[in-house]
Design a protein that fits this description.
heterodimer; A: 153 residues; mainly alpha; flat; B: 514 residues; 22 helices
Chain lengths: 153, 514
């Protein structure tokens, strides 16, 4: 069995996965009747649609292929270097404070492309941290944890 | 007509109202709403110029910041960003063949050719004038149709709202560029995502797994930023940086008399196309500009020159995208239904200020509604004045390499998401949707339908439940009520229309052009 249309096949699988997830758990919420919709009515119905669409899509992808169907240019490493620092930022924010976390965010995410040189990264980090402080904390006076927990601002 | 003038009067009053502001020790009375319109237009143009940063991400980022602003001011600024971006995108599309916005892609085809022929100035002026005209018409339509549409909306019951949302989602599917099956599935995924959290009807927590932050549902701003912001960045970084091009010299700014004559018809056509397409759910600026381009290629005495620097190819799409930007506010402000992801964000902005979008905004808060409408007209005028002299600066901005720009986008996005609910968890949501969004893009699935489904899901479920409750489980009620039937028929017609093979080919062809 050959995957003729990569994009459609994996998309189909993704839909099957999500559909199954929502349907599987949705059973616990009770379907109810049409006149008295239970909590599960909507998710189960829509989830089933997604599941069926996914099955159809994946099945068709095994049979019919088009050149536009090949996945191109997938660069997972870029994903890691963008999403990773964001997650780090989120986890660090309340403990390390905004300014440190932001600086780290800029520094880490700059590694996503080989073109960034170290000096440039540091300047960018300093500039962005200062700018963010100026705009969000000083000008807009938003409630943000600036410094690490335990240190008063 | 009298009431229209009255209403516009309310609007002008609202927008010219002065507030006493003090900054760094100096106080003055300023018409702050004009300031917000200006700031919005400026930011909008700026991000329109910069490729890789678009109005959706920016509005999502600035949404929480508008909390600090008064409701009208915040909405004015966000609206300014949206239509400002349409102006900004065309500047770089014409001068350096780097459209800052998807809606300016077609403008770059003829616009850049004109620039290379030394006629960049004429192209820019044509784009600006076309955009101004279209913007004004769009606002006029908004003003004229608001009241009658709202009256129709008051007739809407739960079945009509449900059918309208079905139409909206079908529109989003049909007017998106990818495979229909995938778009429908994406819409449905969005609907499912919207069910996460406590079900307001029964109080049961759905798909929340005892995570307290999920009880209120998945943060919409988080999803928007993840899918439109983070995923975009990852995609842009795939193939190396965006190349910078040396700008062509802009000699004479003014179009010739011949140019003016040729501009008129495409401007009118583009405005018409854009006004209609902006109105349709799922339509919007990109579709409008593409459609206008397709029309200009088929119609008009100079149609064969399209592609080689014909001014029609600039004026038409630019008018279309500006008209669409304005009219896309109509469904939101009259019916309370967002017709595209940007409008969905506007819903968010209104909710932040405790305003329930819908027809009652017009009657209950006229200065807000009409102030916003008038601000759009003022904003359009400001933009023309802004853009022509500042073009040199915009082009120079393009020299900021993307490798420095994207960390900035990340910074502002993260702060933006955090401050909506002071929740670091929302940032994690954004990150997760960044991954998901990237995967979807790679697999050829359109993400805008996902977002729309996400926003409309809870409303649809509530309306469905109410309808079925009142009709004792009879689904036929959707067809027996005339308004609801009409809406569903239009939705069905759209679906059928798209499935016809000839239209299918046309659709693919239009999207392949770019």
């Amino acid at each position: 069995m050959q995957i003729k249309n990569q994009k459609d096949f994996w998309a189909g699988l993704l839909f099957i996965m999500f559909g199954a997830f929502f349907v599987g758990i949705g059973f616990d919420y009770g379907f109810g009747t049409a006149a008295a919709m239970g909590s599960g009515f909507f998710p189960l119905s829509v989830g089933t649609i997604v599941l069926l669409l996914g099955v159809g899509l994946a099945a068709k992808a095994l049979v019919i292929g088009t050149p536009a169907g090949t996945i191109e240019g997938l660069r997972l490493i870029k994903l890691v270097w963008i999403i990773g620092p964001v997650v780090v930022f989120a986890l660090m924010l309340t403990t390390a404070g905004l300014l440190l976390s932001l600086a780290l965010l800029v520094i880490l995410s700059s590694f996503a492309t080989a073109e960034n040189k170290f000096k440039g990264i540091l300047i960018n980090a300093a500039a962005l941290t200062t700018l963010s402080w100026l705009i969000f904390a000083w000008a807009l006076e938003m409630p943000l944890p600036l410094w690490p927990a335990g240190l008063s601002g | 007509m009298d009431t229209l003038l009255q209403n516009l009067g309310i609007g002008f009053n609202a927008i010219l109202a002065t507030e006493s502001v003090s900054f760094a020790g100096i106080s003055a009375a300023l018409p702050m709403n004009l300031v917000y319109a200006f700031v919005g237009a400026l930011i909008g143009t700026l991000i329109g110029v910069l490729p890789g940063l678009g109005p959706v991400t920016t509005i999502a980022m600035l949404l929480p910041a508008t909390y600090a602003l008064p409701p009208l001011g915040g909405l004015i600024m966000l609206a300014g960003i949206y239509y400002g971006a349409q102006y900004g995108g065309s500047t770089t599309a014409i001068l350096v063949n780097l459209p800052g916005e998807a809606s300016s892609i077609v403008t770059s085809i003829d616009g850049y050719q004109m620039a290379r022929q030394g006629r960049g100035g004429a192209a820019l002026t044509a784009a600006a004038l076309g955009s101004l005209f279209a913007g004004c018409v769009g606002v006029a339509l908004l003003a004229a149709f608001a009241v009658p549409l709202a009256e129709v909306a008051f007739e809407f019951g739960a079945p009509e709202y449900f059918s309208l949302m079905v139409l909206g989602l079908v529109g989003a599917v049909v007017l998106s560029s990818g495979s229909l099956v995938k778009s429908i599935a994406m819409v449905c995924l969005g609907l499912l995502g919207g069910t996460v959290g406590v079900d307001p009807h029964s109080g049961t927590a759905r798909y929340a797994f005892d995570i307290p932050e999920l009880m209120d549902g998945i943060s919409f701003v988080g999803v928007a930023i993840g899918v439109f912001g983070f995923a975009e960045i990852i995609k842009n970084l795939e193939g190396g940086s965006i190349p910078s091009v040396s700008a062509n010299k802009v000699s004479s700014m003014f179009p010739t008399k011949e140019d003016f004559k040729r501009m008129l018809a495409p401007m009118l056509r583009g405005t018409g196309i854009g006004s209609v397409l902006g109105l349709l759910p799922g339509g919007g600026v990109v579709l409008a500009s593409f459609a206008s381009y397709a029309v200009e290629k088929k119609v008009g005495p100079h149609r064969r020159e399209i592609g080689q620097g014909a001014i029609e190819g600039v004026v038409g799409p630019e008018s279309a995208n500006n008209a669409a930007a304005q009219t896309s506010f109509i469904p939101l402000l009259t019916l309370g239904i967002p017709s595209n992801p940007i409008m969905a964000l506007m819903v968010g902005a209104m909710m932040i200020h405790n305003i329930q979008p819908g027809p009652q905004v017009m009657t209950g808060n006229p200065s807000l509604f009409w102030g916003l409408v008038v601000s759009m007209w003022v904003g359009n005028v400001m933009l023309v004045i802004l853009n022509l002299p500042l073009i040199g600066i915009w082009v120079r901005l393009l020299t900021v390499p993307y490798r420095i720009l994207y960390p900035a986008i990340l910074v502002f996005s993260c702060i933006g998401v955090y401050t909506v609910s002071t929740s670091a968890f929302d940032i994690i949501i954004a990150a997760a949707f960044g991954v998901l969004g990237y995967v979807f893009i790679k697999l050829g699935c359109e993400v805008a339908p996902l977002l729309l489904g996400f926003v409309l899901g809870p409303m649809m479920e509530a309306n469905l439940r109410r309808t079925l409750l009142l009709s004792h489980g009879e689904f036929s009620v959707f067809a027996t009520r005339p308004l609801s039937l009409a809406l569903l028929l239009v939705a069905a017609a759209l679906l059928l229309f798209i499935v016809l093979p000839s239209i299918k080919a046309k659709r693919q062809e239009t999207f392949q052009e770019a």
